Predict the structure.
Amino acid sequence: MIFALPALIGAPYVPSRSREVQRLFAEALPLGKGDVVLDIGSGDGVVLMVAAQQGARVIGYEINPFLVLISRWRLRKLPSAQVCWANIWRQSVLDKVTVMYTFSDGRDIAKMFQLAGRQAAAQTEPLTFVSYGFSVPGTQPTKEYHGYFLYRLPGGFTSPEA
């Protein structure tokens, strides 16, 4: 039941595979100390863990309190990691995000991309929006990599309406 309820307002929990995420960040989107990764629907924290191990500051938003506890436990020794029990649709933009990651379902991906656009518009640095499993309808990805769709948004980006 605790895993099903969040699916009513977001995507269901599907654990990310650490090896796939490691390949993404090693080969298609290398991270470093200057990066800030925001994982929307951070689940059990696998994406956050891999990104933090590469030196990035990581922030996860998760609506399922049980998964928040698992993530916080998993990331407890990483001072650059933060996991918030929060609904992303009620959050303000952050000061800086260089990578926004989501494993959303097809019904919400355009809305997630608009959220990335609002974040990019509020900062001067570019942002890479990463969607696993679903492309943004009507928008060409900058890069595709083993089921990941990457979209580069410049700082000051004006988000298209979905």
In short: The first strand starts at residue 36 and ends at 40.
